[in-house]
Amino acid sequence: MMHMTFYWGKEVTILIDSWKTDSWTSYLLSLLACLLVAAFYQYLENRRLRLKLISSAKPSPTPQIETPLLQSKFTGDGAKLGVKLAGAILFGVNAAIGYLLMLAIMSFNGGVFLAIVVGLSIGYFFFRKEGEEDISLIVDNSCACA
């Protein structure tokens, strides 16, 4: 029977039937896994924001020096398409992780909820930089747990 209210206890099913905890060791390892995935979510969101910033950067007004041997093979439309494809892949992976985190919280276990919230906070602390809050308002976001 699935819980429909928050409960505290070591017996929880997270996401799939085979991920059940029945001892304190398996429960604490599962909470650690949830915490690490939540922090990784923030890391990927940071990478996606940086990619978005790089792709939207305007060229500098200073004159460019011709260096054909040092130029990237990907310039012009090919580079824009590659960056857009990489951004789309990052967006999809980040959306999937975000929704899996949301579904894990829907196990209604208090420990899982706290582990994910703490993981998101730790990830935000370590992977987000000063001034990125303004950027995140502009950039599209797939999940509520950004």
UniProtKB/TrEMBL annotation:
Superkingdom assignment: Eukaryota
Protein name: Uncharacterized protein
